[in-house]
Specification:
Length: about 140
C-alpha cells in the first residue's frame, strides 16, 4: 500500500456523486456503503474523515466516508467525547466568567474555566430560546 492511502481507495473507481446520496435514499446509501465494504483502505479513510471533521458542526458532515454515514460519524464523535458534567475545567485567566472569556480560552487552545464554560452554555441556551421564539 502507498503512503497516500487514498490512491488505493475503492471509491476512486466510481462517480463521486454515488457517495453523496440524499439522506432519504436508502438504496443509494446502501450502494455507497457496499463499495466501502470492499475497500482495502476503509479504516484509513474513516480515520482521516474523523480527523478532518472533528471541529465541524454536525450539519457540515455530508456523504458516505470511511464506510459510515454522517449519522454514524456523529455517533462516533459523541462516543469519543470527553466527560459531560464532571468535565475537567481549565485555569481561569484574566477576563474570565463570560462568553467572551470562553472564546479567549478557545483561541488560546486551553480548556475553558468553569465560569466561562457556564457563561457560554447560558448564552447558547438564550440564543436557542430566541430562535424558537422567532420561529413561533
Amino acid at each position: 500500500m502507498t503512503t497516500e492511502w487514498w490512491i488505493d481507495a475503492e471509491c476512486m473507481q466510481y462517480d463521486p456523486e454515488l457517495f453523496y446520496p440524499d439522506p432519504s435514499d436508502k438504496e443509494g446509501t446502501e450502494e455507497a456503503l457496499a463499495v466501502c465494504r470492499t475497500c482495502p483502505v476503509v479504516k484509513q479513510c474513516l480515520q482521516e474523515t474523523l480527523r478532518v471533521e472533528a471541529s465541524s458542526h454536525a450539519a457540515g458532515r455530508h456523504g458516505i466516508r470511511g464506510g459510515q454515514t454522517p449519522t454514524d460519524r456523529a455517533n462516533i464523535y459523541r462516543s469519543t467525547r470527553g466527560p459531560g458534567p464532571e468535565r475537567e475545567y481549565g485555569t481561569p485567566v484574566k477576563g474570565c466568567g463570560d462568553a467572551a472569556g470562553y472564546q479567549r480560552h478557545r483561541r488560546a487552545g486551553t480548556p475553558p474555566c468553569q465560569g466561562c464554560f457556564e457563561a457560554e452554555a447560558a448564552r447558547g441556551k438564550a440564543a436557542k430560546a430566541a430562535r424558537q421564539e422567532l420561529a413561533a
